[in-house]
Amino acid sequence: MSAEAALEPPPPSLADRLNPEGAPAQPLPIAVARLALIGAPNCGKTALFNALTGARQKVANYAGVTVERKEGAITAADGWRARVLDLPGTYSLRARSPDEVVTRDAVLGRLQGEAPPDVLVCIADATNLKGALRLVLELKQVGRPMVLALNMFDIAERQGWRIDLEGLSRELGVPVVTTVATRKRGVDALLAAVQGVARGPAARSSEVVWREPGPVELRTAHREAERIRKACVALPARPDTLTGKLDSVLLHPVFGSVILLGLLFLMFQAVFTWAQPLMDLIKAGFDHLGVLVGQTFPPGLLRSLISEGVISGVGSVLVFLPQILILFLFIIVLEDLGYMARAAFLMDRVMGGAGLHGRAFIPLLSSFACAIPGVMGARVIDNKRDRLTTILVAPLMTCSARIPVYTLIISAFIPNRTVWGVASLQGLVMFGLYAAGIVSALSVGFVIRKLFWRGAAEPFLMELPAYKLPDPKNVLMGVWTRAKIFLTRAGTVILAMMVLIWFLSSTPSAPPGALGPAINYSFAGLLGHAMEPLLAPIGFTWQMAVALVPAMAAREVAVAALGTVYAVQGGEDAVGPLAGVLHAHWSMASALAMLAWFIFAPQCASTLGVVKRETNSWKWPAIMFAYMTALAYAAAFLTFHIARAAGA
Amino acid sequence: MSAVQPVIAYALVAFAAAWVAWSMFVPSKVKARLRGRVKLKR
Hints:
Chain A is α/β, with parallel strands linked by helices. Chain A has 28 helices and 10 strands. In chain A, the strands form 3 sheets. A 6-stranded mixed beta sheet of chain A has the order 2-3-1-4-5-7, sandwiched between helices. Chain A has a two-stranded antiparallel sheet with strand order 6-8. In chain A, strands 9-10 form a two-stranded antiparallel sheet.
């Protein structure tokens, strides 16, 4: 928001705009109402937000996916328009963690430059009304028009819950509608109810009243919520026994852990074995494109830029798209099933032993995609030191940008053979690299919490969602979103970086009578040779040094940069797939050192920027950069020398 | 075509350099302000 906008007074509420003189409410379809979606974590707020606005915000079957306010717009058939706020989940307005503070402030109109919402849409999981009714009673105190949406009503019906909707509406004094957000059912009824209350008498009051309740008021509210629940909700005729039966196995301390490890193992095996045909297809496509460029353009700088810069660079990253998508297919299906919350439960003892808060699991899980949502996801943790520890270790989890680097080096140096009859050796190494990321995050967390910030571990409470069959549309949308992110990066930051790397690798040209490849005399060659003494102890060549510099923009740029540098360098060894080129130029010890480097190295400027934003200080990104670089150098040094001593 | 190739190639390099500088080194607050001003002038 610009400084000018921040100085403007908050916009008037819908009630003021509709009835500036306090006149009886009349429908004015051109007014823009502001709706806020509020509810407990994992009740389907974001799914309803997507259903209402057509947005594609991430939804998953566990608590804590949304940590900041999102805004969208809707226009009803009669021209009625509204802005919809999707807010982080909360059980109460008594906010404790930063994400709950966002919800409380948005509801109470305390956010700078924002009026309170015109209508509160309280969303409740229809199969779990106990806590939701307490929130409804608390929200009623705010004094804004409200509608209660009982979401996931199809599951409630299937389980045989009997809910007296009219009685519930009468007891609470608010309209009650039923919805199935993932299938867009009940959206029209919800909008009709929202329009009804927006034009009703409650809308005329623009005053927002709320104060934090004391213990006596809390007990009274709890009793009132129980009374209403007993009066209006009958226990299901067919209770959900499947969740209990599955949990007895999946949450078992031994069987549960074995199943979790087995699932992760299967995931990385699939990443290597299923992706290969598609990767070969993409590779063949780029080879064909290279031939086409060679036939179309006469020899010259532009042809060199396109074939050596763009096709060799960007193409070498794009071939990893199938692996990334298969990995996310697994993660999204497990999220939708409701399994990830169980994984958090199983990991809680390990994480607690390492000094990490139980709620850190979800941010760390998000970091498998990218450290940025992981760092932001740490907002669900209320204790400042726990939150900072999670932020500091989140980039150690293996993000998807590392996949091209890992896969390239593994396919170049690890033989593609089967071990123990079933497992691919390359998949096992990938599994090991992911495990190394997790172990290093836990170890650093342990050091921070046990040596620097000692304190008692706080108890971790998390509602386990019911198991659900994954929604194919949501799964496909999630995979498509990841594909779009990857392709956008390839088409923007990686493409731009490769054009620059090509320029730096081919300018200036070699002087007359020069010996060796022309790239040795280029800016990139000079930079690489200047960095070589610093990186030689960890086994890195000057070409590897050149790749590390642009990889600060994004880790996968290292792969593209290697593709471009070796393509510009040319020579007999630079012909063929990049993996083969690396095999000809690097020793096994150097390759293993590079893998060790990428487990720890803070090769992502965006992550450092987000850490600055989340901590409001440059101190923490500086500490993160320093400790991760030190660990990366130490790990690469040890790996290189141990591997060399072992004859690699 | 051979004479035009360096011109196009270096123009693309200049564009890529400007884009990388804009996206990586210009703070988001400055970008938002500049975008806001452009909008106001319209």
